[in-house]
Amino acid sequence: MVSTPTLSSAPDIRTDVLIVGAGPVGLFAAFEAGVIGLSCQIVDGIERPGGQCIELYPDKPIYDIPAIPSCTARDLVDRLMEQCRPFDPPMHLGQRIESLEALEDGRWRACTDQGLAFNAAAVLVAAGNGAFVPQRLMLDEAPALEGRSIHYSVADVNTFAGKNVVIAGGGDSALDWALSLLPVAQRVTLVHRRPGFSAADSSVARMHEAVAAGKMDFVVGTIGQLHAPQGRLESIDVRQIEGSARIDTDHLLVLFGLVAALGPIADWGIANPAGKIPVDTSYYESSRPGIFAAGDIAAYPNKQKLILSGFHEASLALRKAYTYAFPDKKRVHVHSSYDAKLAERIAAVHT
Ligand SMILES: Cc1cc2nc3c(=O)[nH]c(=O)nc-3n(C[C@H](O)[C@H](O)[C@H](O)COP(=O)(O)OP(=O)(O)OC[C@H]3O[C@@H](n4cnc5c(N)ncnc54)[C@H](O)[C@@H]3O)c2cc1C
Prior knowledge:
By secondary structure, this protein is of the alpha/beta class. The protein folds into two domains: 13-133 and 259-349, FAD/NAD(P)-binding domain (3-Layer(bba) Sandwich), CATH 3.50.50.60; 136-256, FAD/NAD(P)-binding domain (3-Layer(bba) Sandwich). It is 23% helix and 26% strand. It is built from seven helices and 21 strands. The protein has helices spanning 24-36, 51-55, 73-84, 172-180, 201-212, 307-325, 340-349; strands at 13-20, 40-44, 61-62, 71-72, 91-93, 97-102, 108-112, 117-125, 131-134, 150-151, 164-168, 187-192, 217-220, 222-227, 235-239, 244-248, 251-254, 258-261, 277-278, 291-293, 298-299. The strands form six sheets. Strands 1, 2, 5, 6, 7, 8 and 20 form a seven-stranded mixed beta sheet that branches. The chain has a five-stranded parallel beta sheet with strand order 10-17-11-12-13, covered by helices on one side. The protein has a three-stranded antiparallel beta sheet with strand order 14-15-16, with no helix packed on it. Strand 3 (61-62) and strand 4 form a beta hairpin. Residues 1-7 have low confidence and may be disordered. The chain binds flavin-adenine dinucleotide. This is Ferredoxin--NADP reductase. Belongs to the ferredoxin--NADP reductase type 2 family. Homodimer. It comes from Paraburkholderia unamae.
């Protein structure tokens, strides 16, 4: 079991359930935890909730969510956020759970890569296919320049002030940053492997307007070679159908999208070689008592990677999690339609 020291001296956040992942299943789990009477904390490695729904297909319609004949993936996430609002579950976004260790009293301690630590009676892993990480530039010289001249996200816009910036990619992030950095950078060049984009039409139109007005450049091609004689990027070669173009470059912002990687979960002693967590289907508990898995990461015979399966799995897992949080209490099931406290909470957020 990997154990990472915490970077901050803040006390551990104590909770009944730690939910790893704010995809659709993690979000529904936060609501269900509230209904059952469990406090929870949610952590996700990316900056926004929604998991695959938001990262991979936000504008596609979904037709198989019970009682919602059709909604986009983004709309589903908005509805799930609205549904868990009565419990106001704390969400820690942009932080990946790195380590998980068993404590002597039977509880679990988990730490994020940003130094937050949680002390939880139970852990629900709703981590999908793993944490989303940026697709990297596959050039041998790239790793040495990462963080200084090559970036996969924008931590501070001032880094690009007065500089020659090349942005590689053709999705929403690439277009949005190309337009946002126009007033900041000395020169912005957008490089994409084809003339078409997978981004909002309005952004594409604004980009073409800026190019036509001579405010930025757009080059069709792929990043071929990086020139960094002093350990700092000076120019890049863009491979084109015929020949290549050299572009003066101080910073290269690579926005090729995100890929999922299991990452640290592989070290927690619960995942199989395929990167899934085998569970017992009575409560979707893993081989380690108190650690549960729901959604795409859970593995059992006939598993269907569907959002509705994840909702069911999370709901049952939390019922067993209750017994870890409150070993001396017997939970009495009340249908939500008869749950006066729940009705009050929901009414409170709508008044
Ligand atoms: C194109 C496409 C269309 C689809 N259409 C449908 C459909 O119509 N109907 C349907 O039911 N399903 C559909 N699916 C499948 C559905 O999206 C998944 O089943 C669902 O997203 C699984 O939800 P999840 O919450 O388990 O995982 P995810 O949505 O993958 O979310 C997991 C989250 O966990 C986070 N995470 C992982 N590891 C860590 C860590 N260590 N620390 C912190 N955070 C972490 C990730 O960053 C991610 O945000 C579709 C999938 C795709 C790709």
